[in-house]
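Design a sequence for this backbone.
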């Protein structure tokens, strides 16, 4: 892809769930982490670490190209939607409990 819109390269590692990669559940939450600049692509369900995966950003784009709209999501922000065809809503991610 010559017009890669993300600042991170296509092979950067991201955190996601098996259900997303397998096409069982849609991506409904995207987090661009404040602490390390990492990306998370989540279903909105309770996370079972047995289903956690590390995959490339390119893999995520292949699963759901709508995340390309979030390539400019600032570090420390997240985006969510209610269903796969809903618009993304961006917001500053809350600080974790105990963070200053």
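Sequence:
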């Amino acid at each position: 892809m010559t017009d890669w819109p993300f600042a991170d390269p296509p092979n950067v590692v991201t955190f996601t769930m098996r259900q997303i990669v397998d096409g069982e559940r849609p991506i409904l939450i995207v987090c661009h982490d404040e602490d390390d600049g990492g990306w998370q692509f989540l279903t909105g369900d309770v996370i079972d670490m047995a289903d956690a995966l590390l995959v490339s950003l390119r893999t995520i784009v292949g699963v759901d190209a709508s995340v390309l709209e979030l390539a400019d999501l600032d570090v420390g922000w997240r985006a969510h939607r209610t269903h796969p065809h809903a618009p993304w809503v961006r917001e500053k991610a809350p600080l974790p409990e105990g963070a200053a």
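The chain has one domain: 13-83.
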